[in-house]
Amino acid sequence: MKPAGKGQEISEKKYGIGGDYMKKEIYDAFESIKPEEDAKERMLTNIQSMASEEFTRRKGLMKKQYQNVFCVLQQLLQQS
Amino acid sequence: MRRFAIKNRIYIERQVNEMQSSLRTDEEIEKIYNRHVDTIYRICYSFMKNAADTEDMVQETFLKLIVSGKQFQSEPHEKAWLIVTASNACKDALKCRCHKTENIEDYPSLTYKTSVPENPMLAVVLSLPIKYKEVVYLYYYEGYQTPEIAKMPHCSDSTV
Asked: Which is more confident, B100 or B139?
């Protein structure tokens, strides 16, 4: 029969008081995830080129939409 | 009619200029990117579990930031927005992957997509269900408090 409070004692021995050891382990695990320098540069280049493409696409779309509106209004004016 | 055409042209140019000015310059993008890339990479990796998909998600997150033209009150606000956007993008990508059908002949190559981490704690953390992973990261790594975490995925303190 395990004495009362033994579980906590074992836990504190293993993980430190208040689970600080556990916190550190989890922190270190996330800390080990890091992008490599060349991957960082590659991603930035891709982001900048994608942003530029997206801007050009939106600009074209916007112009097309207004041109369509203009055409419709022109037709309406001609009809009236 | 000619006057209307000129007005229309001016209006289009104004709209394009507004869109252009709301977007950040390359320098601003680079600064934001350098400030947050490690954080966003970590959060994306914890969802995607491999470098290639993680890179795609990081790019998608920053692209969303650029395209949205969103202005932030402070750096912590900017960081919180990026964290939420990145985790939502990863969740969406994983959902799509669940519904995607793969050719059975490609199966051997698919099994190598997820790399097994050397750190045993990292392996445990990565194997957590999605809903816990995000909270564990925000609490243990970023040091956010429970009420702050609750605000991010919009759930109650007790759920967190």
From this structure: B139
Supply φ then ψ for residue B31, to 5 degrees: -65, -50
pLDDT at B112 over 50: no
CB contact B87 to A (< 8 Å): no
Sort out which chain B residues have CB atoms less than 8 A from A74's CB and list them.
1
In this predicted complex, what is the ipTM? 0.71
Contacts with A55 (C-beta within 8 Å, 6 or more apart), sequence order: B19, B20, B23
Q: Is B56 exposed, middle or buried, given 0-12, 13-18 or 19+ CB atoms closer than 10 A?
A: middle
Packed helices B51-68 and B75-99: angle between N→C axes, nearest 10 degrees: 130
CA dist., res. A24 & res. B86, Å (int):
24
**Chain B residues whose beta carbon lies within 8 Å of the beta carbon of residue A51:** 23, 29, 63, 66-67
Cβ–Cβ below 8 Å for B55 and A25 = no
Cβ distance A26 to B125 less than 8 Å, yes or no, reads yes
pLDDT tens, residue by residue, A35-74? 999 999 999 999 988 888 888 888 788 778 877 877 888 7
Both structure tokens of B82: 């990026």
Contact A26 B58 (CB under 8 A): no
B154: left (phi over 0), alpha (psi -120 to 50) or beta: left
Whether B59 sits inside 8 A of A35 (CB atoms) is no
